[in-house]
């Protein structure tokens, strides 16, 4: 296996953010730097068993950067990857993106020094952290370009919501909803599924006791929200509303 210097842990939906950071790290620390991004076709070759490749790479990478956004901070896979890196003795650096506040990061990552890509001072500190661990002197340039690119990357900025309008509120499928306070479950109505279908989604009522197969098939939990003050799951007895984009 090729030597990997940095592992960037991220959710698939934020691959553009991860790749943007990858290129800036290489620009600042040397183009020979080997940076692993799981959604980058260069990082996982054809025929590789992706789970084994990711775990093996995590165990051998001296640095792991964990991208945390309102959408990713509660994802189990992100926390799993961070745990593997910590267990392997890597320098694990949580980095908040797309409007997530440091105070929103829970334990155990909250006990680690958290960086941000919101301003130049934080980005310089991040590059310095990585360079120190890899014994590389950083040469940072094009900072303004990087800050513009990374804070506009992906559709998952604080203003980007994916879903459907419904009776004056929003049925959201994939966006920064997890940052909003949770309210009690809301009752399902057939018109909710119709609104999602009209917006280009495939809705499904999924059993709450075994969501694993549904999520593995690409469906996501649908929340009802006003986009500002609350989020709530949508239930009908022992099932909940999920959907995936067509």
Explain what this protein looks like in three dimensions:
There is one protein chain. By secondary structure, this protein is α/β, with parallel strands linked by helices. It folds into two domains: 6-152, Rossmann fold (3-Layer(aba) Sandwich), CATH 3.40.50.10140; 163-245, no CATH class. Helix content is 31%, strand content 22%. Strands 6, 7, 8, 9, 10, 11, 12 and 13 form an eight-stranded mixed sheet that branches. Strand 1 (6-9), helix 1 (15-29) and strand 2 (35-37) form a beta-alpha-beta unit. The longest helix is centred in the first third of the chain and has 15 residues, at 15-29. It starts with 5 loop residues before the first strand and ends with a strand.
Number of individual domains:
2
Helix content: 25-40%
CATH fold-type name of the largest domain: Rossmann fold
Question: How do the SSEs run, as a string of H and E?
Answer: EHEHEHEEHHEEEHEHEEEE
Instruction: Write down the overall geometry.
Output: elongated
CATH class of the largest domain: Alpha Beta
> Radius of gyration from the CA trace?
19 Å
Describe the structure concisely.
This protein is of the alpha/beta class. It has helices at 15-29, 50-60, 76-87, 120-134, 143-152, 190-198, 212-216, and strands at 6-9, 35-37, 63-68, 91-96, 115-116, 163-166, 169-172, 186-187, 201-207, 220-221, 223-225, 232-236, 239-245.
